[in-house]
Amino acid sequence: MEKVLMVGTGDVGAHLLEFMARQDYPYEVIVGDIDEEKARLLCNNASIGAAHHGKNPNFRPVKIDLLDVEGTAELIEKEQPSAIINLTVMHTWHLIRQLPEDIYSKISSAALGAWLPCQLTLAMKLGQALKESGVNAHYINTSLSCLTNPVLGKIGLAPTIGIGNIDLIAPAVRTYIAQQANIQRSSVETLQVCHHQHWVFPREAGYLPDAPYLMKIMIDKKDVTSDWDTDKVMYESVKLYPAGLPFTSVSASSTLKNLNALLFDENLLTHSPGPNGLQGGYPVKLSAKGAEVFLPSEWTLEQAIKVNEEAGKLDAIEEIKDDGTVVFADYTYRMMKEALGFDCKSFIPEDSEKLAREQMTLFKELIQKHS
How far apart are the first and last CA of the chain? Predict the structure, then answer.
């Protein structure tokens, strides 16, 4: 039986457990969290619910502290999982919504990549533990994988694939096209290259417009891209989602789809971010070999990479250098310094934990100030 190690039982992790519990794919799931009791109770909840469907999932909760790289590596070496999923983050994006609207809007306009130290740290620690363990496992990173995966790739820790981001947009585009054309969604196919920025621009305050992307729309195998205003399609498709956190169930679905495609060699054509450490999202084929970018003949890989790097500049990140150094965009640096007091124009991955703690402390002080 295949063995999966998932770490983190937040919004996406809790949904993922429920979905895993009700499927037919057979594998054991080691459910790790810094709070083992929380992991145990969520495993119980998913297992009890699965009983209504005649399913008997194999869940095993354990305590994992990702800041203890050596201890995590020992666990990975002992368990020998076929796949590892990071579902952790030090500071989640929606906490800034606790702030007064004007302060929220200013910090939101810095873009989510402004919090990259918080998004990167635990994903990097898990990648280090996996490398140290010597275990050959697929690594799925759910933490802002459009931007964390390329940093990890620069330092030799590239995850196999990410989740969400483009994989929230692509099925929404197919749904929007089907609704507008009054046809079955199964008739609609798309190929897209786009970035996390395209997901947040219609949903959050202050994001900048005109991020580049690539899109090809096919109905019944016929290319109909020219029949559609693709800018409108991109925007309105994301607006199909309710505001707030309900989309996290779709992120969990994306995670499970990618996991099963890798574990069971499905050679699945889908969309996902961060394949093998690339920035942004791409059409990919997922199989037991890993992730392979799949582009139509009219697009080149160099073109697709450039599109996503340019879009990333509107998601806070001016550049990710070859050594993994992250350079924030000027507007991001200015906004984070003015609104939060965070004075950092660039950082190296080794400093991400220290900077993440600084961001979290400054945020806590800001919350207390406005409470």
Answer: 51
In Å, how far are 116, 260, 271 from 170, measured between CA atoms? 24, 19, 7
- pTM here is 0.97
Distance (Å) of CA 127 to CA 63, 71, 86, 367: 18, 13, 9, 32
Residues 233-280 have pLDDT tens digits of 999 999 999 999 999 999 999 999 999 999 999 999 999 999 999 999
Give dist(CA 106, CA 55) in Å, integer: 47
Residues paired with residue 31 on neighbouring β-strands, in sequence order: 6, 61
Please, are residues 327 and 339 in contact by the beta-carbon 8 Å criterion? Answer: no
Compute how many other C-beta atoms are within 10 angstroms of the C-beta atom of residue 211.
Answer: 22
Q: Give the whole-angstrom CA distance, residue 326 versus residue 179.
A: 41
Residues 6+ apart with CB under 8 A from 194: 166, 169, 211, 213, 214, 215, 234, 280, 281, 307, 308, 311
Question: Which residue intervals of the chain are DSSP H helices?
Answer: 11-21, 36-51, 69-79, 101-108, 116-133, 145-154, 166-181, 196-200, 230-238, 248-263, 301-312, 330-339, 352-370
Q: What is the dihedral of CA 76, 4, 47, 69, to 10 degrees?
A: 30
